[in-house]
Amino acid sequence: MHRRNHTYTRNIVLGMTVSFCVLLSSCTALKKVAKTEAHVSAYEQISPVKGRVISAFGYRDKKKHTGSDIKLQNGDTVKAAFCGRVTKASSYSGYGNLVILKHANNIITYYAHLSKCLVEVGDSVVAGEVVGLGGRTGRASTDHLHFEVRYDNIPRNPEQFFDFATGTVRIPFLAYSPAKESKMEKTEKDLKEKEKSTNFEKIVTIKPGDTLYALARRHNTTVKQLQELNDLEEPILKPGMKLKVK
Q1: Which residue from 87, 88, 77 is spatially nearest to 46, judged by alpha carbons?
Q2: 116, 228: one domain
Q3: Are residues 178 and 105 part of one domain?
Q4: At which of 157, 187, 217 does a domain end?
Q5: Is residue 147 part of a domain?
Q6: pLDDT tens per residue, range 69-84
Q7: What's the CA dihedral at 209, 201, 109, 227 to 10 degrees?
Q8: Minimal CA–CA distance to 112: which of 64, 80, 145?
Q9: Residue 48 falls within a domain, yes or no?
Q10: Distance between start and end Cα atoms, the chain
Q11: Could you give the number of structural domains in the chain?
């Protein structure tokens, strides 16, 4: 009888100990979540990646390019630009693996060519939270992020709002409204003027006998930079083709 009571008491103590540990673990997890959310404002804005823009917003080969292509390495983390909700996280046509986030103020962001989506439809994310890994799925000839920002489903130039080279913010996009269009246009004009004066695009026509090595030496660059600039997989040039050298 004494042994039975002792076993019963021990089981009760053991059960209470396990329950306490589970409760303590849950409280710790909740505190971490609360701390994370407390430090991320609903209007926080973060550059999704840091890298060189290899194809800007605008027209490309007479077709509208609705976002900015930023160079990255396969497996690099891609972050949510703003707090929002996941409305798509799957493969979609030329976008490859695509995550779409819906934000406040009728704003939507696209994160395309991912090697892997790390969120699911319906998930809520905070600015800076990783939503996927960089890659080259879909119509992509090199590892990069195709990033779009849309207001009322109309694509806007991401470089108006983000400086991808430094991974910083230029203008808070969540505060955007048509009434502020003139300010946006001025920013875009300043960007274009800066590009013209500091990083103008130069295109050459390939002639018989031209090689990437020779062009790289002639234009003070490298073969690797020429391949990345033109999305070239193989160092094979054909006479008559157009090649960006800057």
Answers
A1: 77
A2: no
A3: yes
A4: 187
A5: yes
A6: 999 999 999 999 999 9
A7: 20
A8: 145
A9: no
A10: 90
A11: 2
- What's the token pair of residue 221? 């660059």
Asked if residue 171 and residue 103 are part of one domain, the reply reads yes
Decide which of 236 and 132 is more confident.
Answer: 132
Is the full-model pTM beyond 0.70?
no
Specify if 43 maps to a domain: no
The H-or-E segment that residue 46 falls in is none
Q: Are residues 101 and 221 in the same domain?
A: no
How far, rounded to the nearest angstrom, does the alpha carbon of residue 100 sit from its chain's CA centroid? 11
Domain that holds residue 222: 203-244
Tell me: pLDDT of 116 over 90.
yes
CATH number, domain of 82, equals: 2.70.70.10
- Separation CA 7–CA 5 (nearest Å): 5
Query: Chain-centre distance of CA 178, in angstroms?
Result: 25
* Both tokens assigned to 201: 């695009």
Among 166, 173, 172, which Cα is nearest to 50's? 166
184: nearest Cα among 199, 170, 196, 204: 170
Compute the distance between CA of residue 190 and CA of residue 179 in angstroms, rounded to an integer.
19
Q: Which two tokens stand for residue 98?
A: 């695509």
Burial 36-46 (b: 16+ CB within 10 A, else e): eeeebeeebbb
32-70: pLDDT as tens digits: 433 344 345 556 899 999 999 999 999 877 789 999 999
The more confident residue out of 12 and 116 is: 116
Domain identity same for 69 and 183 = yes
pLDDT at 137 (0 to 100): 96
What residue has token string 């430094």? 166
